[in-house]
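Form P-L/3: holo structure prediction, ligand NAP.
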Amino acid sequence: MNELTGRTALVTGATAGIGRAVAERLADAGAEVVAHGRDADRGAELVAAITARGGRARFAAADLADAADVERLAKDAGEIDILVNNAGIYEFSTTPATTATAFDRHLAINTRAPFQLVAALAPGMAARGRGAIVNISSTAATSVAPVGAAYGASKAALETLTRYWATEFGGAGLRVNGVSSGPVRTRGTEPMLAAAGDAMDQVTARGRIGDPAEIAAVVLFLVGDGSSYVNGTVVAVHGGERSLLPG
Ligand SMILES: NC(=O)c1ccc[n+]([C@@H]2O[C@H](COP(=O)([O-])OP(=O)(O)OC[C@H]3O[C@@H](n4cnc5c(N)ncnc54)[C@H](OP(=O)(O)O)[C@@H]3O)[C@@H](O)[C@H]2O)c1
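OUTPUT (holo model):
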């Protein structure tokens, strides 16, 4: 029997990038996946790919910038054992160039939507005495840059929430952890990576950009029974920090 057989996983932002890799990895491990996104065509394509490999998945659409739509998603999802808060947006603009609307949008999608989903789904996990939640954060939460402050703040808040939720729900048998991802090649980052060329490969000690499957592998560990004593931790998956010193 596969590790996650009998469990249902909601993966947000599963129609692209890291979320898609997570959805596929969890389905391969036996979970029934509720694959969330907005793009119905890419959602259908993902469900077909998982089904073709013998897995089980269905697509669920919702705009996470809309609080009412997030609540509807939580209801539509039904009984969930595993929640992966992956969907997110990132705009790397300076603070003067970031409008209040753009700031609110980062907080709504990256922070408020996970908050709403945990509020709606964690009580059911607690009642059943088991569950795992993984929040996808970013090294932008802890490593500062001259652009992207709103994004970094939205992920720093998500990491703080991760620790709060681990404490709030840890006694009820569910675990809440995070993954702090370094740069990964996805649909969303492809334009930035193309513009930066080889220079982006040099930002990590491994000397290359990560692959979505390398984040998904850690998510699988964090939702599986092998991490039963891991709670309230944010695991850094960034290929190692590059020394600023020469040599
Ligand atoms: N890629 C990286 O280098 C990197 C590094 C650190 C952290 N992260 C984090 O990892 C997560 C995934 O990043 P990614 O690069 O894989 O992203 P991506 O390729 O841009 O895909 C984003 C996903 O989120 C969904 N999404 C975006 N806005 C949404 C909204 N308003 N409502 C509902 N769904 C929405 C998209 O759905 P549709 O396409 O269907 O609209 C898509 O499935 C994000 O939280 C990001 O901050 C990424």
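COMMENT: The chain has one domain: 8-237.
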